[in-house]
Design brief:
single chain, about 550 residues, alpha+beta, Methylamine Dehydrogenase, Chain H, 15 helices, repeat, rRNA processing, Similar to U3 snoRNP component Utp15p
Length: about 550
């Protein structure tokens, strides 16, 4: 006699979430380090000599960390106040950082000594850059000026005045004499450092009475395409159609406004191919924008509000600094060349997932440490002199007690659910009543299918009292539009209607439940009619 099988809820395979190539690419970035610093991270910058070192500015110090593990390599002397925006020179030999007191410190990246200290700003220096010729430092400050300082002579060569605090700047990779700035008056200005007039040659309006927290050039071979981030928006501009007048040139120069963030955009970055623009915001989201079609491709969460971001020159490492003092370093996996698997030792394999070890079992057949699996050819050919393994070879059937089988059988019966207990005794009405009390849709539908298979569904329905019948009708009205259950619930609803349409007197509550079921069915019929009309219209366009 076949043993009784307990009722199981219907399990549906969830829909496959198809991921696009962009999402699959950014999911290859694995978090290598998460470091908690003493203060908010004000700047991150990868070394131009490689992605194995990153300069991190937090609190009153600039430190250099190993990007693969987050270990400290060296730290520079503390500043008198909060430090900002530590940045390497293109040759990796010098490093510069601004401070809240208005000073700019120039460090030797190898000896950790302070080579120069530039003064002249009256307020915080939030952004510092080296010019492309490596001989000057450009600093942007909250005192509404951008100063170009000569490193050998420590003299200020030029001062560019703005209408508000300057928090963003960047050099033009195609023309070293062009400099782009972003100001808290909402304007993006392009300066020519060769001109003594100190007036911008181009200007666009990012946001009226808004702020610009970062700017960047989009094309390394042109000085006309730029992007600005400020407020919750990221905008792309073509400066060729702009002018030195904000109101006159902004509307013509705007190329696109990309998908906005929920909070202020703090940093922009370009990938190694300069085809993707990355933006991070205080909302903790990183957005990837496609510059070829000027649209947003991907959005991912990176934790708390982000203040700064940098992508390494090879595009494999990403560092983000957050307001809560966390530094996150992510690195994209590198595919191993052929032959590397043979050099992997056993200790490294211990942490691999199950599917990887299973696949490896078919590849490294010469591995003597691989365990024998019963049923395989290797297990059969191990020889008659092989010592038995208790974990593999021994099969324990019981504890030696003659009543062990009876005890297990009684224990299984005791652990049965109430609906399984009634179903085992062919009390179909009580089984249906018990399963309705669980309020689990998959379990209720499974019970209806089982009762129909046993030819006891109609008897179970006729034995329900009024309240139980109302509960079942409400369940059908709620889930009859569900594509997973419709093939079961429609025949059940037909049986319920056939049972009650001949009765002359129905209670008010039961009649109201049947009317709600009829209204729900009529609503779905109208929806199907609208969908058929829409399908016909689509076919008309496609034909």
């Amino acid at each position: 006699m076949e043993a009784f099988q307990p009722l199981r809820s219907i399990e549906h395979i969830p829909p496959v979430e198809r991921k696009g190539p962009e999402e699959r690419f950014w999911e290859t970035f694995d978090e290598k380090a998460r470091i908690r610093l003493t203060g908010a991270v004000q700047g991150v910058h990868f070394s131009p000599l490689g992605s194995n070192q990153v300069a991190v500015t937090a609190e009153s110090r600039v430190t250099i960390l190993k990007s693969s593990t987050g270990d400290l390599i060296k730290s520079f002397p503390r500043t008198d106040t909060v430090a900002y925006a530590g940045r390497y020179r293109t040759d990796g030999k010098l490093l510069v950082a601004g401070t809240e007191s208005g000073l700019v410190h120039l460090y030797n990246a190898h000896s950790r000594s302070i080579l120069r200290t530039f003064s002249g700003h009256k307020s915080s220096v939030r952004s510092v850059y080296f010019t492309i010729d490596k001989l000057r430092v450009v600093s942007a400050s909250d005192d509404m000026t951008v100063r170009i300082t000569d490193i050998p002579s420590e003299q200020c060569l030029l001062s560019l005045h703005h209408a508000d605090r300057v928090r963003a700047q960047t050099p033009c990779p195609a023309s070293p004499h062009l400099w782009l700035t972003g100001c808290y008056d909402g304007a993006v200005r392009l300066f020519d450092l060769r001109l003594p007039s100190q007036k911008p040659v181009r200007m666009v309006w990012h946001a009226q009475h808004g702020q610009v927290d970062d700017v960047c050039f989009l094309d390394s071979e042109s000085s006309t395409f730029v992007a600005s981030g400020g407020g919750s928006s990221v905008r792309c501009w073509e400066l060729l159609h702009s002018s030195s007048d904000v109101e006159a040139g902004s509307q013509r120069a705007l190329l696109a406004e990309l998908e906005p963030h929920r909070k202020a955009v703090m940093s922009l970055a370009l990938d190694a191919t300069r085809r993707r623009l990355l933006s991070v915001s205080l909302d903790g989201a990183l957005k990837v924008h496609d510059l070829s079609v000027l649209s947003t491709l991907h959005t991912r969460s990176i934790g708390a509000g982000c203040l700064c971001m940098d992508l390494s020159a090879d595009g494999r490492s990403l560092a983000t600094g957050h307001v809560d003092g966390q530094l996150r370093i992510e690195r994209r996996g590198v595919s191993k060349p052929s032959g590397i698997e043979n050099e992997t030792n056993v200790d490294e394999r211990s942490g691999e997932p199950d599917w990887a070890s299973l696949a490896r079992g078919h590849l490294d057949r010469g591995d003597a440490l691989r365990p024998y699996r019963p049923g395989t050819r290797r297990y059969f050919l191990r020889g008659m002199y092989a010592k038995p393994d208790s974990d593999i070879d021994d099969v324990i059937l019981g504890d030696g007690d003659s009543t062990s089988g009876t005890s297990r059988r009684r224990r299984r019966q005791h652990d049965q659910k109430p609906y399984d207990h009634h179903l085992r005794r062919f009390a179909y009405d009580k089984a249906l009543s018990a399963v309705l009390e669980t309020n689990q849709s998959g379990l209720i539908v499974s019970m209806l299918v089982e009762l129909d298979r046993r030819k006891g569904l109609q008897n179970a329905l006729s034995s329900l009292n009024e309240q139980q019948m109302i509960t079942l009708i409400e369940f059908i009205a709620k889930h009859i539009a569900d594509s997973r259950y419709i093939q079961v619930l429609v025949p059940v609803s037909h049986l319920i209607v056939d049972m009650h349409h001949t009765k002359d007197s129905l209670s008010g509550s039961l009649l109201a439940a049947l009317q709600r079921l009829a209204a729900r069915v009529q609503q779905q019929v109208h929806h199907l009619g609208d969908m058929e009309k829409m399908a016909a219209a689509i076919e008309l366009f496609l034909s």
